Amino acid sequence: MVRRHSLYVALVLSVLVPMLLVVATRADQPAGTDVSGYLDAMVDSGVPGVAVVVIQGDKVLTATGHGSTGSGSADANTRFRVASLTKSFTATAVLQLVQKGSVDLDRPVASYLREFCTADDRSDRITVRQVLNQSSGLTDRTLGFNQYAARPTNAEEAVALLRDSRLAYDPETSWDYSNPNYWLAARLVEVVSGEAFSDYLARHIFTPLGMRRTSHYDVPGQAPAVAESHSYVFGHPLHLDDPDSFAGGAGGVVTTANDLGRWLRFQHGYSVLGQQGEVLSSTLLQEQHRRQSPLQEYSVGYALGWWNGEPADGGISRISHSGTGAGTSAYEGLFPGGIGIGVLINAGTPRADVVAADLYALVSGESLQDVATAPAPWPDVIAVVAVIAVGALGLRGIRNARKWAVKGNTAARWTIVALLLVVSACLVAVPWIGGRVVARQADWTVLFYTAPVPSAAVLIGAVCLLLLAAARSVALLRNRGMTGDYVLRP
């Protein structure tokens, strides 16, 4: 018994000690006194690669990249996926059609898209504005499909998936962030303009603004070479190919720090290559940035493809949008004083919005005490220790199932089995439960890309509990027909 316990202790220490050493090295990362020093400290902490741009007025203060793309060094011309930052481009595309008189923000989407229908008659009243400000009533919790498991390849197929969906509330009476709103917006652009959405963005936004290394794709396989995406395993970055999910108008833009600088200058109202007015008028730019969601707390301070207000965790009010994908994090912010900041990271952590807030503090003359870094390994360590404990207890319970079945009240034993089944089912249903809590969809693919070790630990733990419940059920069933003088044999 002592030797067995020593083996367990050695196993746990072999996992914990290297992790503790990683924590110790990262706790002492310098804060950095300028943008370059800050980014160096980020990379030293374990962040694979990052590129940023800071503009003020019509000038670029800095545009640089640090770390690795997976196949080379990151710089200001490295392409990164920006996930939901795409929504600001999609909204601009729709507003261009408004500027041309081809679209009215307050007309129903169905008047432009005859193909659009749901299982809810109220969807006929959804306006273009309500799609862009996310108050349409379409929510992740009322979709008739899993948006990550479904595999549409274009906006037309994506909109067709909505036919079995319902609205969570009357349009314009509440608010929910949901990607399918922007699938609708992309399809609207296609039908009204007569151009494929990706082609429209290239011709009417990217090219006029001189964003030569920026493009859009509907599915990951269509994208050009970009910085490799990463998740973290025990605090160390691990490259994972992006899941093959549809992006459409909700995601799919690939850009660089240099190009993002042009976009931010334009969005701040400054001329880029003399094309600012031709891309979108100043009046419609202001309309795009105006808070328009029906509820006016921060959590629903949504404009048209942008947020407008203070961040949830505090800080100066700004117009911004974040983008978080599988192994990527991006942020664009229009700060006071004509300052614009873009952050591109080829990992999901640290949050790009936190980095942007730090950079704003630096360019505003403030000093920082710490740096946004790669995540500590503690969550993964805890997950591994927990699943080892569950596995060990489960194995012991399986080995002792026969003895357990003949002891005590049989009904109470069946209750314990039922409880084990319920708990394991809940663990397997983590994506569904989490989606209900935050009103967003996710599946195991998304969770694995976000947190590989904890996700695997949850599933392994669920399997262990299921096996234990099965073993005890078999033992109880076998014991049911036994006589009272049944004696366990060794």
Per CATH, the architecture of the largest domain is 3-Layer(aba) Sandwich
Overall tally of structural domains: 2
Query: CA-to-CA gap between the ends?
Result: 20 Å
**Low-confidence spans:** 1-29, 483-490
Radius of gyration from CA coordinates = 26 Å
Shape category: globular
Oligomer: single chain
For the biggest sheet, the summary is: 6 strands, antiparallel
Which structural class is indicated by helix and strand composition? alpha+beta
- The CATH H-level homologous superfamily of the largest domain: DD-peptidase/beta-lactamase superfamily
Relative helix content: 40-55%
Explain what this protein looks like in three dimensions.
The strands form three sheets. The chain has a six-stranded antiparallel sheet, sandwiched between helices. It has a three-stranded antiparallel sheet with strand order 3-7-4. Strands 5-6 form a two-stranded antiparallel sheet. It has helices at 2-27, 35-44, 86-99, 128-132, 155-160, 180-193, 197-206, 257-267, 276-279, 282-289, 352-363, 378-399, 401-405, 410-428, 430-438, 444-450, 452-480, and strands at 49-56, 59-67, 80-81, 215-216, 230-233, 236-239, 253-255, 307-309, 318-325, 328-335, 339-345. The protein contains 17 helices and eleven strands. The chain has 490 residues and is α+β, with helices and mostly antiparallel strands. The longest helix is centred in the last third of the chain and has 29 residues, at 452-480. The protein has two domains: 35-363, Beta-lactamase (3-Layer(aba) Sandwich), CATH 3.40.710; 378-480.
